[in-house]
């Protein structure tokens, strides 16, 4: 039976690299984005590369609870994914004391609340069948405090706590839970910066790490993946 993976924010960067990696192993895909044109481009590319597999794309803004719930319900009409990747996120630099009003709410809703509500939508079925693997894409900003991290860092610290709690809740149901904590990865978030591309990690390396963690036997789980550029954090 064909397995499936749900990746939020799957049209670019780490999310897209994960879709590509799991598709190479025969997985069908569910994904979403706020931008319909990006979804159509991804779908066309996927169908040309993997013509015998299915990709289901949905337009959704996961900073809004009602759209998280609607997206989840649409996916459930088609099936319960074997793997969930909570990847949706936004980043705006700034200090807690001076960042623009609204940054906190936007990043918490997008980076944390989306993962919370999406995960809740599928855990009942995963518990009933006693299988599944949930990954949360966090950040090293959720491990190390730094100036100008502001609300983004707060959301990623909270994401790590959420994932740790989820691991404890689901381990007796044979459901694996993994935190992925990447350092600076060359994605759209870094476009325009005056830093050599080779100073960054590749999104494909993050995807390979996720695949490796998923591919362990049922007797082991990788609880946390910390992956940094070879020369250290930026």
UniProtKB/TrEMBL annotation:
InterPro entries: NAD(P)-bd_dom_sf, Sc_DH/Rdtase_CS, SDR_fam
MF term (GO), any: oxidoreductase activity
Bilayer-spanning residue ranges: none
Keyword vocabulary terms for this entry: Oxidoreductase
Keyword NAD annotated: no
Gene3D superfamilies, alphabetized: NAD(P)-binding Rossmann-like Domain
Matches recorded under Pfam families: adh_short
Keyword check for rRNA-binding: no
Family the UniProt entry places it in: Belongs to the short-chain dehydrogenases/reductases (SDR) family.
Entry protein name: SDR family oxidoreductase
Originating organism: Aquiflexum gelatinilyticum
């Amino acid at each position: 039976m064909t397995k499936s993976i749900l990746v939020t924010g799957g049209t670019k960067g780490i999310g897209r690299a994960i879709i590509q990696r799991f598709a190479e192993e025969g997985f069908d895909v569910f994904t979403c984005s706020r931008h319909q044109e990006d979804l159509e481009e991804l779908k066309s590319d996927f169908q040309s590369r993997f013509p015998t597999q299915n990709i289901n794309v949905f337009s959704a803004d996961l900073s809004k609870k009602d759209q998280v719930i609607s997206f989840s319900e649409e996916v459930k009409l088609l099936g319960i994914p074997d793997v969930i990747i909570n990847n949706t996120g936004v980043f705006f630099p700034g200090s807690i004391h001076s960042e623009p009003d609204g940054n906190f709410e936007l990043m918490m809703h997008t980076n944390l609340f989306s993962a919370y509500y999406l995960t809740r939508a599928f855990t009942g079925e995963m518990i009933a069948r006693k299988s599944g693997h949930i990954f949360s894409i966090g950040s090293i900003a959720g491990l190390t405090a730094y100036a100008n991290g502001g609300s983004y860092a707060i959301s990623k610290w909270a994401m790590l706590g959420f994932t740790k709690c989820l691991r404890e809740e689901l381990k007796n149901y044979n459901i694996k839970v993994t935190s992925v904590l990447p350092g600076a990865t060359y994605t759209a978030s870094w476009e325009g910066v005056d830093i050599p591309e080779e100073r960054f990690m590749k999104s494909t390396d993050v995807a390979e790490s996720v695949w490796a963690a998923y591919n362990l036997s049922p007797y082991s789980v990788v609880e946390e993946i910390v992956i940094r550029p070879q020369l250290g954090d930026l």
